[in-house]
Structure formats: structure tokens, C-alpha cells
Structure of Pyruvate dehydrogenase E1 component subunit alpha:
Amino acid sequence: MAKSPVRAAAEPPIPNRERPAEPQPYQASKDELLDFYKHMLLIRRFEEKAGQLYGLGLIGGFCHLYIGQEAVAVGLQSALNGDTDSVITGYRDHGHMLAYGIDPKVIMAELTGRAAGISKGKGGSMHMFSTEHKFYGGHGIVGAQVSLGTGLAFKHKYSGDGGVCLAYFGDGAANQGQVYESFNMAQLWGLPIIYVIENNQYAMGTSVNRASSEDQLYKRGESFRIPGIQVDGMDVLACRGAAEEALAWVRAGKGPIILEMKTYRYRGHSMSDPAKYRSREEVQSVRDKSDPIEHVKKLLNEQGVAEDELKTVEQAIRKAVNEAADFAEQTPEPEMGELYTDVLVERY
Ligand SMILES: Cc1ncc(C[n+]2csc(CCOP(=O)(O)OP(=O)(O)O)c2C)c(N)n1
Ligand SMILES: [Mg+2]
């Protein structure tokens, strides 16, 4: 049989490529550790309160809680350069905003649809933005933020502003077509982007093993020559360490990189999830064994931070969250005229 011209023309195997180094856990000072603790606890208590307000009918529409995943946003975003780097994520976005230190009042007021909310009460839970912080949402379309984030990275490169984009998406989104079109372009053009897969084990009611033929998601860039690192997303120091490594890779002009953050969401997919697809024991076992906040609390205790000091921190956080909730309940709804602002009415 004649030799296939296709085979004959095939390239020799690709030589070994440079790989990022194995990230080391971040060596945090006591103050930094306390700061991580405060941010994670704020997210946890804020989200619990949001769940309550939802139950009372004060929050309408969708509401996806981030409880369990706090170490990811806090660890990664603590490594960013706030003046240049951008962030984009999906609809599970309250934690990412709080990790920036944005006032919980304007986030809670957005949840209750009030004019003082960060998107003027017109975005709600899934559509929060802060261009001041270079936070570009808050997107309800699964996977959309991956291509939009790639666009942000293109902008960083085109304008030469030195910024890196952090584009978060879920394990479910990782199976979407636009993700791979984005990977291809990002590597081809050497774009400064970190693709962060928040693998919380479920996409709505479907576990990652049931939905993904390759469930080691950090390998998903291999066909595009994008390296990936798997990270313990329940350990804020591992998250920060991975961020340092990924940022060094991207800032050195080596193109995109993938971080797969192995994490877990304790609550349902959204507030309307009956959670029949997993047992209470499964959730409890993760909480008991690897809760990210308890982990840092233990480290703080080991460093000599007294229980009393942590109690004072907790009280201050509860107070701030209660004030945010009161504000979100009392501050007025948008004027009717707001229906006609921020809407595209012309051709472009
Ligand atoms: C394009 C598109 N398809 C389907 C949906 C419905 N949907 C909303 S969230 C979701 C699951 C996504 O799971 P994952 O990416 O793992 O993120 P997680 O919710 O776990 O953070 C689906 C299918 C959607 N919003 N957009
Ligand atoms: Mg998921």
C-alpha cells in the first residue's frame, strides 16, 4: 500500500517544552495571614447573610453563593497588582469583589437591587462590576468570561500596560467550545492571561467525573501548549503560592497558563438547588477535613494569635455584614428613569 502523504509529511514530535516550576506555599507573615483570615471570614459571613436575605425574599433572581471556595479568590487576588491587572469571572462573583476590599454595603445593595448598589441595582448578584478595581464582572453566560478575559489580555498586550488578566471559570465551563478557541488565540499571540479553573467538583447537579472525559482539568491546555498547575484551592497559602508562580510565568512573556484550583462549594449551585445529587455526609466531610478558614485559624493559633483576638475580628466582621444588610434593605430602589440609562439604543 502506498505510504500516506499525510503521514509522510508529519512533523517530528514536539521537543520538551519549558514547564513552570512547582509552586511553593506562600510564606505569609502573621499580619498577612490575619489579613487572609479576615477577607475569607468576611466572604463567609457575607454569603451566609445573603442566603438569609434571599430566604426573606429581599433578594430576587439568581443568587450563587461562594461558601467553601473563599481561599481561591483571596489567595489569588492578594498577589495581583491592583493598578494594572484585571479580573473577570462568572456569576458566583460576590467573593471576588469582597476579596478586593470593596465595601460590602454596595455589594449587598446590589443584591437587593438598590440604586446605591455597585451596578446601580440593575445587575444583581450575577452582574457586578468595578472598573475602578479593573473587575470586569460578573457574567451569567457560562464560559463567556473566558473569551472576554482573553480580550482583556489582548488589551493588556496591545496597549503595553504590563497588566495580566485573571479569568476565572468553573469545571463545567471548562467543557465549553469557546474556552478552547480562546486558549488557541491566547497561546498563539502570547497573551498575558491566567486561566483559573475553579473546580468545585460540580456543575449544577453534575459531578466533574460524570461530565469530563479528562477530569484533570489542569491538563486542558496541553493541545495548545499551555501549561497547567493543579492547586489545593482549600489552602490560601497554596493559592497565593500558585498565583506567584503563574504571574511570574506570564509577566516573563511566556504566554498564558492554567491554574486548576481544587475546591468545593458547600451550598447548592444557587439558592434554588435542592442538592439531591450528593449526600450531606459528603459536604460535612469536606467541611470537617479541609475548611479553608479553619485551616488559617489553626495556623494563626500556632503563631500565637490568641482566641480573643480572633473573636474580636469575628465580631467586627459580623457587625460590618449586619450594617451592609441593613443598608441594603433601607436604601432606595433606582428611579424609574434608570430603565433608560446604560442601555444601548443606537447602532455601533
Ligand atoms: C451558555 C450557558 N449554558 C448553560 C447555562 C446554565 N448554567 C448555569 S451555571 C451552569 C453550571 C456551570 O458550572 P461550573 O462551570 O462548574 O461553575 P460553578 O457553578 O460550579 O461555579 C449551567 C449549566 C448558562 N448559564 N450558560
Ligand atoms: Mg463547578
User: Anything to note?
Assistant: DSSP finds twelve helices and seven strands in the chain.
